[in-house]
Each structure stands twice: as C-alpha cells, then as structure tokens.
Amino acid sequence: MSRVAGWVVLVLALVVSYRPAEAAQAKKAQAQKAQVQQTQVAVLRPEGRQADALRRVLTQELGKKGRGREVLPAKKVDAEVKRIRGGPKTDAQRQALAKKLGADVLIVASVKGTKRWDVEVRAYSGKDGTLLAEERWDVRTNRAFPDVRRELEPKLGAALNEGSEQRLPPAAVTPPTPVSEPEVAPPAPIAEAPRPAAVKPQPSKPTAKKEEPPVKSEPKAASLRDLDGPILEAVLSGQALFRRFNFTGNNADTLPDYNLNSAAAASLSVVYFPLSHFTDGMVHNLGIVARGSRAIGLSTRLPNGDTYGTTAQLLEGGLRFRLPLRWMEVSVGALYGTHTFAVDLPPESTFALPDVDYRFAHVELGLRKALTERWAIAARVGYQHVMSAGELSSDDYLPELSGFGLDGELAVEFALTRMLGLRLGGEMRRYAFTADAAQGAPVFADGAKDLYFSGQLGVFLRL
C-alpha cells in the first residue's frame, strides 16, 4: 500500500506542476491565433487626380483599431505593383500579388470627374483574386471624401470579413497549432521517458524553414517600372509671329524701325527622358530637350515698295530636369540657342536694318499643373545671356555690344486621349542691348530693343 500511495502522490505532483506550463502555452497559442486572424489588407494606389487623398481615407478607415485588420504599408504595396506590367488586371495577377504581399484582401479604387467625383471601390479576395464586393459613390468635390468615409465600413465590412475567412483554413495548418500535440504526452510519464519523442515537434521546424525561400526569391522578379511622368513629350504647333525692332538713344529718331504685324510659322518641341528605360530613381527625370521654329513664306517690304525674302528661325537644345511634386510638376533647363532674323537685301541697299543672329546661353524654369483629368496649364520663364548678335554687333552698327534676353510662355492644354491633346498658348521674347562705347565717342546708336511675340495652336503627344 505504501508503494501505491507513493506512486499516486508522484502522479499528482506531476499533474500540478504541468498546469502552469499548460496555461502559459494556452495563452501563447491564443495570442498567436489572434495575430494570425488579423486580416491583412492591401490598398493599391487609386486611379485619378485625387488618388493620394482617396488612398489616405481608405487606409485610415480600413485600418481603424478594433476592426481586426492591418493595412499593409503603401511603399511595400507600390513596390510589388510596379513589377506587374500595367497593374493587376486579371484574377491570376491579383492572386499572385496577394501571395507576395501576404494580403487577404486587395482594395482597388478610382476617382474621376470634375464638378462631382465618381468614386469606385472594389475588394478582391487574396486567395483566388476574385471580386468580393464593389461600391460606387457620386460625391461632391471634397478631398476628405466624407460620404466614402462614413459608408465604407457598412458597405464593404462584410466582404472584408469574408476575405479573412477564406484565409483561415490554411492558417490552421501552420506550425503554431501542432505544438499543442506534444502536451498530451506529459500525462503518461510513468516509465516511458522516450514517449515524449522530441522528434515529433522537429518536423514542424523544417516546415517553417521551407516557407522562407519563397520570400527570398521575390526580389528576383523584374519587369517594367511605373515612372513619374511620360518618357517622351512632343508639341507640334502653328504660330502667328510678330516683331518690333528699334534703336534707342542718340540718333534713334533718324534710324528706321522694323514692324512685323503678322507672319505664319511652325514650331516643334521635343523632350526625351532616356534614363527612364533603365532606372526609376531620381535621375530618370533628367531629359534632353530640343525645340525650334521657322517662319513660312515671310517677306519684307521696304518703304520704296521693294519686297525681299526674310528668314526668321529659332533653334535651342540642352538638358531639362523635372521634379514631380504633389500638386504640380516643376522643371529647370539649361540650353544653348540661336535666334536669327535676316532680310535678303542686295549689297547696294542703303536701308539701315541690320540682320540679327543671336547666340545665347539659356536657363529656364517651367511649371505644369493639372486642373482636371483633361485640362492643364503650363508656364515657363527664361533668361538668355547673349554672347553675339550677328550684324547688329558689327563695326557698322553697335561694335561694343552687350545685352540679354527674357522670355515667357503661357499655355492651356486639353487632353483628347491619354496620349494626345490640344495646346493653345502664347510666347514672348525680348532682347535689350547697349553700346558700351566711351563717353563722348561717336556711336551709331546707344542701344537697341528687339521684341517678338507668337500665338500658338498645336497638338501634343505624351508617351
């Protein structure tokens, strides 16, 4: 009897000693289960001008505390979306994206319209990429989206819960649940010490390790990048050209002026960002710019009635760096250019009108702001450091010449499609020169002013 009583006391002591450990393991299992059951939601960047504002509202509402959801970081989501050419459009693409992100639900949204905004929000299952729910709102233009914020959870909450339920079966097979099986072994420790068999928990560890390699293999995927702004911009325009040239200072009243009231011209401007093919870093915003214009069928009639052919053209080329900001695009440029205006006068002509051939270094600042999905406004200002002026800086006119130029452009754009649109605007250039002659020295004139203005109507292409 004493031996039996000893065995009973031993068993009771073992049972009592295992209860705290069992309670601790049960608490840990419950915490892990609660963490696993947290719904992982990926909010993709919406389409439309107000994409950032709408994404912020969706992230805040879906990730509120107490709703059992966790919204994945936007940078992580965007990085994976960039690897999919054109974005996830099919169920298979959405399924693959959700697998890489570890997401249970994908949220795809868009905001369109001008006077009122048409907001569309779709929830897709991360398990198979199929549509769980879709909702639309016709709201006033308010970046806080109060209607969407108020009705998002009532309308899409059930669909998001459904997405998390679809994820639960695979979660039940994960290593944390099998860990509780070895706990059944302690009630029978009487003489079978080998029975706990530490070999049983070990298979769960290799299974967890086998899931790690897919995570490492994700960075190997590579595809086209989603860049900020187009790679190629081209504008072809027809122009109406005007010019006013006159001398200033001494003898200016006796010297002729030149007034061009109207002339037809054509212009072409091209900006290309070649580094966009190789990188999506800041350097991909460095581009090559070239533009030019030339008058068509231009001639000049002198006071005696004679008419002579006239050449008017502008050529510029250099580098441009664009900086896409949240509300507008800012660009800076450094160019070299020539601006020519020449009348084919015969050698025996006594008409005192010099041909000009300005050679200058040009720096400029540009702005472009999208007003709506179709309308945009663009502006540019620049400064030209004139290094030579052709015949105007010769010994016959202003040999000791120094001067500068200013230019400005303002245009309105209307998009016909995603790539094509119309552009209407105007451009002005003004050159001012002085003759740096010694005081009292005879001069042809003290200086000169040359003003150009052109109205433009053209077509733009963005790729």
TrEMBL record:
Keywords: Signal
Signal peptide residues on this chain, from the entry's feature table: 1-23
Pro residues bias spans: 172-189
UniProt biased composition (Basic and acidic residues): 208-224
Domain of life where this protein originates: Bacteria
Keyword Ligase: no
Region (Disordered): 159-224
Compositional bias of kind Low complexity: 190-199
Name of the molecule in the record: Outer membrane protein beta-barrel domain-containing protein
Organism: Pseudomyxococcus hansupus
Lineage summary: Bacteria, Pseudomonadati, Myxococcota, Myxococcia, Myxococcales
